[in-house]
Automatic annotation (TrEMBL):
Catalyzes the reversible cleavage of pseudouridine 5'-phosphate (PsiMP) to ribose 5-phosphate and uracil. Functions biologically in the cleavage direction, as part of a pseudouridine degradation pathway. HAMAP family: PsiMP_glycosidase. Keywords: Glycosidase, Hydrolase, Lyase, Manganese, Metal-binding. Its EC number is 4.2.1.70. One of its GO terms (molecular function) is hydrolase activity, acting on glycosyl bonds. Its cofactor is Mn(2+). It comes from Reinekea marina. Binds 1 Mn(2+) ion per subunit. It comes from the Bacteria. The lineage of its organism: Bacteria, Pseudomonadati, Pseudomonadota, Gammaproteobacteria, Oceanospirillales. Substrate binds at residues 87, 107, 141-143. This is Pseudouridine-5'-phosphate glycosidase. It is an enzyme of class 4 (lyase). It catalyses: D-ribose 5-phosphate + uracil = psi-UMP + H2O.
Length: 304
């Protein structure tokens, strides 16, 4: 066992008994949503996973320990600290561990730690990707490279249109990362159910997805899988409203020269401000929806 890893007893027990476990990330708590909705959502997502027959494992770094499964107090600590917690991707993990600091894990870092613990399925809101203007800025999330090499499936509502969805699709194709659409042929765009892009393979049940995952990993094909799950119809947002907010936020980020790891949190916060409270309500609902599908896929993968 990795000397830096602390697996919560409930998670360890489920893994030892081949029972379903769903990993959850913590950057969505500290950098993705405001207090107190971030704490309420993190706990509600865990409860949703339990209600759907799986064990939740929220992942973060607490005092330099890689935690797989958090207490409610630890969730509150991250939620209150917000942007002052270090946002950790692959590159940042050694620093935060060596300095025994707190860290919130992105999709990439959550995949790494889930893999260390032996967890195969991870549910979140949206993945990072190739940013608009990446031809100039080279801003491509480390989430994509991680998906290319780490064996964890990520259930998400697609990617926000703060990104260039077409370039993100191309990059994933190059890395050999399959993009599955749950009951859809269209790549969902987070707040909206559809985009002008397609998924690689439509899958109509969690069993089908679990069989896909076992075929991939039993063959020894390393890397992750994107399981794109559209936001429930009743919570989807008006596409023009989102489009305008995203364009405005991207424009401001260029004007203010926001780069590197600050870019995504800036855009997320600005889009939320520009769209008012609706986008937060949608964001919460799509995460819950992904937790439900993630639980079902994890359960079927245990049987596959
Ligand atoms: N997209 C969202 N919500 C989020 C994130 C992305 O819609 O909370 C977070 C995730 O933690 C993701 C990270 O892994 O931002 C990507 O950051 P970057 O682009 O700096 O890699
Ligand atoms: Mn980036």
């Amino acid at each position: 066992m990795n000397q830096y890893l602390d697996i919560h007893p409930d998670v360890a027990k489920a893994l030892a008994n081949n029972q379903p476990v769903v990993a959850l990330e913590s950057t969505i708590i500290s950098h993705g949503m405001p207090w107190p909705e971030n704490s309420e959502t993190a706990k509600l997502v865990e409860q949703t996973v339990r209600d759907n027959g799986a064990t939740p494992a929220t992942i973060a770094i607490i005092n330099g320990r890689l935690k797989v499964g958090l207490s409610n107090d630890e969730i509150d600590e991250l939620a209150k600290a917000g942007l002052s917690v270090t946002k950790c991707s692959r590159r940042d993990l050694p620093f935060v561990v060596a300095k025994k600091q707190m860290g919130a894990t992105t999709v990439a870092a959550t995949m790494i730690i889930a893999d260390m613990a032996g967890i195969k399925v991870f549910a979140t809101g949206g993945i990072g990707g190739v940013h608009r203007g990446a031809q100039e800025t080279f801003d491509i999330s480390a989430d994509l490279q991680e998906l290319g090499k780490t064996n964890v499936a990520v259930v998400c509502a697609g990617a926000k249109s703060i990104l260039d969805l077409g370039l993100t699709r191309e990059y994933l194709e190059t890395l050999g990362v399959p993009v599955l659409g749950y009951k859809t042929n269209s790549l969902p765009a987070f707040y909206t159910r559809e985009s002008e892009h397609t998924v690689d393979y439509r899958q109509d049940s969690s069993e089908e997805i679990a069989q896909f995952l076992s075929a991939k990993w039993n063959m020894g094909l390393e890397g992750g899988v994107v399981i794109a799950n559209p936001i429930p119809e009743e919570y989807a947002m008006d596409s023009d409203k989102i489009k305008n907010a995203v364009e405005q936020a991207v424009k401001e980020s260029v004007e203010q020269n926001i780069v590197g790891k600050e870019s995504t949190p800036f855009l997320l916060a600005r889009v939320a401000e520009l769209t008012g409270g609706d986008s937060l309500a949608s964001n919460i609902q799509l995460v819950l929806n992904n937790a439900r599908l993630g639980s079902a896929v994890a359960a079927d993968y245990c049987k596959a």
